[in-house]
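Why predict the complex rather than its parts? Because the way molecules touch one another can change local conformation, and only a joint prediction can capture that. The input here totals 489 residues.
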Amino acid sequence: MSKVKSLKCRECPEEYEISPKYVCDMCFGPLEISYDWKEIKKSVNKDSITNGPKSIWRYKSLLPIDGNDVIDIGTGFTPLISADNLSNLLGLKKIWIKNDSVNPTYSFKDRVVSVASTKAKEFNFDTFACASTGNLAGSVAAHGAKAGFRTLVFIPSNLENEKIIAASIYGPEVVAIKGNYDDVNRLCTELAETKPWAFVNINLRPFYSEGSKTVGFEIAEQLGWKTPDHIIAPAASGSLFIKVWKGFNEFFKIGLIENPQNTRMHIAQPEGCSPIATSFNEGKTHPLPVIPKTIAKSLAIGNPADGYYAIKLAKETQGSAHAVSDDEIVKGISLLARTEGIFTETAGGVVIATLVKMVKQGLISKDEEVVVLITGNGLKTQEVVSSLSAPTEINPTIKSFEDTFPNY
Amino acid sequence: MGLSKQLKFTFRGKSIQRPLIYEVGHKFNVTTNIRKADVESDGGWVILELTGSKEEINKALDWLKEEGVRVDNVAGDIVAG
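Output of the joint prediction:
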């Protein structure tokens, strides 16, 4: 018997058979997967998980996948690192870094794309597609190559060359769309409506987004089957933020952890694109769309699909939401690199800057445990920190060295 | 009647005081079918279905944008980081 029951509307009672569908016909609300928890509880326990592979597929029974043929490029079970230097510097008991920058294509997107590509195979699609300005493009291209799909990656025509190379190397069709961000959005929506493709964050969105909850599963498992006092997560669409919590909640539902009710969920956004944080702090329930202008391009979603749910979750968990400046983002990247030896991209800088801000505001007690999510690798956004690299030139003599560096 | 689009209109400032959804249905050959809305004095949004020919829908959306309405796909931004 399948553990996946149906697609259920998050807004109204409508339910649909499992299919590549993402919006409720009745109220246009988003659809999500409904599971048979009784069935899952019979077969999933701590042993069944710990005996599984060291990847997201150790949680396969909790993902919307029916078969055993998964598209696996080695995603997940990334390190949860005790950030002792950063903890000491900020005066906190324990900061943990969930380092998702070491996934196969160097970002957390491999989690969602692993699930989406596997489901696309189960649905018998032969074409796999996405619209992206960076991390998602590389991940879709890599999984498309592994799965043997015809793969299409749509990008804005002004995308930086390094990002194009990072996707092109896997051999997809890279389509550069002339026009602005809205034009790319509009065209891709129309293509998804007319072409029989698996468009990862459109018609496969209910499946794709479930991949993010494996971050929550891993954090709880790696902390010894418990949840921390605080989670600080970056928010673009808001999906990762809510799915981390969903992961905790599902572990609780099947008896693997205590009720995560004491874990507070905090949203981190860049000031140049903070529709969720702004609405949260203004007491609104829905984010008002904005036009993004930030160095944190991986968080530049002006109209976040899950913004409403992210605001709701932060409120329900007595969490908070923060927006940090471009300058703070760069300082955050540098701080993490210099204290913990982890080079993160701009989204990670947003998270570290938010952590620093929260500590300054007294929102985290000294004896509490914090997990911060580092979702992408710094090599992807080197341009924003290029001003920090200033080699000191010397002549090829000991004297020149000692004159220049008298302290060594 | 041709194409059907599921959209989110976001209104800000003075545009909230105008009957723009009524007007768009009269100026262009499109039908509006509201499914969800949240409107306050300083702004709001409406989720609706817009039905008509592709040409009429595009003309209607261009006009709404000129009037200060933000038009988005109901599922949020598709382009991801």
